[in-house]
Every structure is written in C-alpha cells, then in structure tokens.
Specification:
The structure holds two protein chains of two kinds. By secondary structure, chain A is an all-alpha fold. Chain A contains nine helices and no strands. In chain A, 41% of the residues are buried. Helix content of chain B is 31%, strand content 25%. Classes of the chains: A mainly alpha, B alpha/beta.
C-alpha cells in the first residue's frame, strides 16, 4: 500500500512536465555552464576548480534539494488539500500517516536519483572522491528529513498549489541566499563565515552547505562536528513534524 | 441498519443552512433527497459523511454516534485529484488502498471507463470525471452510499444502464442508498422514499407511493408533481 502511494507520487511528479523541467533545469544548467568554462579555458585550472566546487556545484545541490525535497512536496500537499483528496482517502484503509510515509518514500527516491545524477555529472568535470559523494548524499537525506515536515506546515498555510508555488520563490531566496550570500560576503570581507553561522542555525540548508564545502575540500573543518549536524537535523525534523501535525489539516 | 439525523443544524458565517433537519434512513432502500439550489442538500450530504461538522444535533448509526462516517461513501459531483495519473491508475490506487474493495466489472462497463482508462485525469471531461467519482464511491464498498447528482453529465445510455445497476446490484447487497438529484423523471422506479428540503428544513417526506397518493391531483406527473405541490417550484427551475 505504502509503495503504491510512493509510486503514484513519483508518477505524478514525473508526468508533470512543467514542474519536472523547472526542478531539473537549474541544477543541470550549472553542470552545462561548468563544462563551458572547462572547455573554453577562460580561467586557470585552480580558479575553475574553485568556481565549480564553491559556486556551481554547491548551488546545484542546494537547488536540487530545495526543489525535490521541499518545493514539489509543498505544492503537492497544498493541492491534495485544495482538491479534497483526503475526503476520498479517509474512506479507504490508508491512514494519513501511511499516506505521508508513502509520499515521503517517493520524495526520497526522486531526490536521491536526481542528486546522484547531478553528482555524477560534476564527476565528469572534476575529481570528487566517492566517499565525499556518499557523505553529500547522506547529509542531503538528513536535510530532506527536516524539510519534509516543513512542507506540510507551508502546505497547511497556503490555499492551493498555485499559491504555494508563488510563495515558494521568496522562501527559496531566504533559505538559500541567507547561506550562500553570507558565506560569500564574509569571505570577501576577510572574515570567517563560521562566526556568523549561529545566526543561521535555524536554516537546514546551512548544514548541507557546510558539509558540501567540507567534502569538496573548500574548508578545513565544519562549523560543528558533522555528527552534531545530523543530530540537529533530526531534532529539527521532530519539532517541525509536531508543528506540522497541528497546521496541516486533511479537511 | 438505521441512519438517523436528529435536529441537525449547520451555519456558515452566521447564515443558517440546515435548520433542525431530522430524518431516518434504513438499509435496503433508496432515498431521494430533493430541493432547489441552495436548499442545503449538499451541505446535508457533507455533514452526513463527516466532511463538515454539525453545529448542533446528531448523526446516529444503529444507535451510536461513533464511527458513523467510516460506514458512508460519497460520490462527489466531480473528481479533481491525481490530475497527472491515468484513470485506470487512480482506480488501481484506490483498489489497493481499500482492503475490501468492490470492483465491479459491470459498473466499469456501464460507465464506459474502458474507452478512456488510459487518459490522464487532467484531460478527462466532466462526464468522465463524474464516472470516475461514481466508480470510486462503489469501490469503497461501504454499507451506506450517498450519490450527489449521479445522473448529471452522463449520456442517456449510461443513465439507463446505471439505473438498472443501482436497482439490481444495490438491493442484492442490502445497501442504503441516498441520492441527491434533480433528474427524477426517468428514474422514479429507483426511489422508495422521498425527502424534500427547503430553506434548510425537511418540508415533506414519506414513502414515494404514499406521497404520490397524497398529491394525486398535482398538476405535474410523478415526483415532479409532488415537489411542485409542496414547494411551488419546478424541479431545477423557477417557482409557479
């Protein structure tokens, strides 16, 4: 039953060509731009490596995770509510929990397949150890764990998928640029970005970005030990799941 | 099995939609719920299936107010979910989600789903979505079935076949059938009892035969005549 729900979630997302294209185009576009940079030799080998690892690849991973783990599920959940799908589901033997778990499996599967494809795409251009790839995949799944309940909270607040879609743009800007811009500007100012991370600790993308940067050898150590990131993300997921239970109503 | 409504009241933003509705429904019979647009039929249906909470009164199944809604399936006027799934995939999904699903090949055939089962729901017409909604309501296999305008949007042949299906298979299964419909002229044989709702109140009810006897001098024939005599309205139209 749960696997069937997962399968249907994936089918719906794959067949929704507009959303699928929107989800894939930006992460893969950065691979294409990286390739153009590489073949055009406009920058030195060292600068190219820094640009790809520090900007393009980090941004691809963050965007991909945002789109597949958060944006798609928020829109989907808002539409489930608007279309009163649970009026039907609640009369079957599928409990809401089973339904959300099934949908979650679909989200995890789609995100991981695309993430691995993106990482393999960059691996064609630069050297990325398999261990680093595995670590990036692992932390991405923990971030997904935190973002998935957040999508229920937002879907509970928005009237339907279209409203959710329009609101997700500023949310994306806040979640992503609060990390990438802070890191970039503090670095340019000659300061250590880690000194400011405490103010961004509410943002799950912070932990992803820091571990990605560490595993790509851009920084010598993470802000906190990596195991603590996993604990924080798990804790954040539990807190958000508790709020989500109150905010997202099936009626 | 008896489903009872006792003094059901429902308000929206201070406007009373249902004003003390009481009714009783028994298994093995088909009930027709009549009323003009805005009379409160759909609100009553939503309260009966638990989609809306009642403000006062109670809904009782076999003497108990608990688990009433687990026993009722409703066919909504349309089906809008899973727009990017094929119709047969939606049916398959519900078949898997429902342990005791009632998958009727006969109904599948009657509704002509074979001819558009590969279509994505987003491309389906109003009639096709209505057919999916009807099929899923039966698939859920509940002892009480509430159908909201089941004949609207269906072509004439499907209407007649659906009437026959409802008459035969539903009575064999001893289910309780409640139908909201404006189209009654060709389907009168289906209904055992009639409830007429006007301005949130039940203004007339009884066995169809007894009501036909009571209003035998009505200017219009059959159920339409009863409705006209009670409300001064033509079904689906304006007042006299």
């Amino acid at each position: 039953m749960i696997l069937q729900i997962a399968r249907m979630y994936m089918l719906e997302n794959l067949r929704n060509v507009g959303v699928l294209f929107g989800n894939l185009v930006t992460p893969f576009l950065f691979i294409f731009i990286s390739w153009i940079f590489k073949i055009s030799s406009v920058v030195s080998e060292e600068s190219l490596l820094f640009i790809i690892k520090g900007q393009f690849m980090s941004f691809s991973i963050l965007l991909l995770l945002f789109q597949f783990a958060f944006s798609s599920s928020t829109i989907y959940l808002a539409d489930l509510k608007a279309e009163r799908t649970f009026n039907w589901i609640q009369r079957t033997d599928a409990t809401p929990l089973k339904y959300y778990v099934g949908m979650g499996i679909g989200v995890v599967t789609l995100m991981n397949i695309n993430l691995i494809l993106v990482l393999l795409g960059y691996r064609l251009l630069i050297d990325i150890p398999l261990v680093s790839m595995a670590m990036i995949v692992l932390v991405s799944n923990f971030v997904l764990l935190a973002l998935y309940p957040l999508s229920f909270i937002l879907a509970g607040l928005f009237r339907n998928g279209k409203v959710a879609q329009s609101m997700l743009v500023p949310i994306m800007l806040v979640l992503m640029f609060s990390i990438t811009m802070t890191t970039m500007f503090t670095s340019l100012a000659g300061k250590n970005p880690h000194d400011y991370f405490v103010f961004l600790s509410w943002n799950p993308m912070l932990y992803l970005n820091d571990i990605v940067q560490f595993n790509l050898d851009l920084i010598q150590k993470t802000w906190m030990p990596q195991y603590q990131y996993f604990l924080i993300l798990t804790g954040l997921s539990l807190v958000l799941a508790t709020i989500a239970r109150k905010v997202y109503s099936i009626r | 099995m008896q489903l009872s409504l006792q003094d059901v009241v429902k308000q929206y933003n201070g406007t009373t939609i249902l004003n003390g509705v009481s009714a009783s429904f028994y298994a093995g019979h088909c009930y027709l719920l009549l009323g003009q647009n805005g009379a409160g039929k759909s609100t009553l249906a939503k309260c009966m299936v638990g989609d809306e909470k009642v403000d006062a009164g109670s809904i009782i199944l076999n003497g108990s107010t608990s688990q009433v809604f687990d026993e009722i399936a409703m066919q909504y006027q349309t089906f809008e979910s899973y727009k990017h799934l094929r119709i047969r995939e939606i049916i398959q999904l519900f078949k898997i989600l429902t342990e005791n699903a009632y998958y009727s090949e006969e109904l599948y055939e009657i509704l002509g789903i074979h001819s558009y089962e590969r279509m994505l729901l987003k491309n389906a017409s109003g009639g096709q979505r209505k057919a999916v909604s009807i099929f899923l309501a039966f698939l859920l296999n509940k002892p009480i079935l509430l159908l909201d305008e089941p004949f609207a949007d269906l072509d004439l042949m499907k209407k007649k076949k659906l009437l026959y299906f409802l008459q035969t298979s539903m009575q064999q299964q001893n289910k309780l059938l409640i139908i909201i419909s404006h189209e009654v002229a060709e389907f009168e044989a289906l209904f055992d009892y009639i409830y007429i709702l006007d301005k949130g109140k039940i203004v007339e009810h009884g066995k169809k035969d007894e009501l036909q006897q009571k209003y035998k001098h009505a200017v219009l024939p059959g159920i339409e005549g009863i409705y006209f005599d009670v409300t001064g309205q033509v079904l689906g139209g304006r007042g006299a």
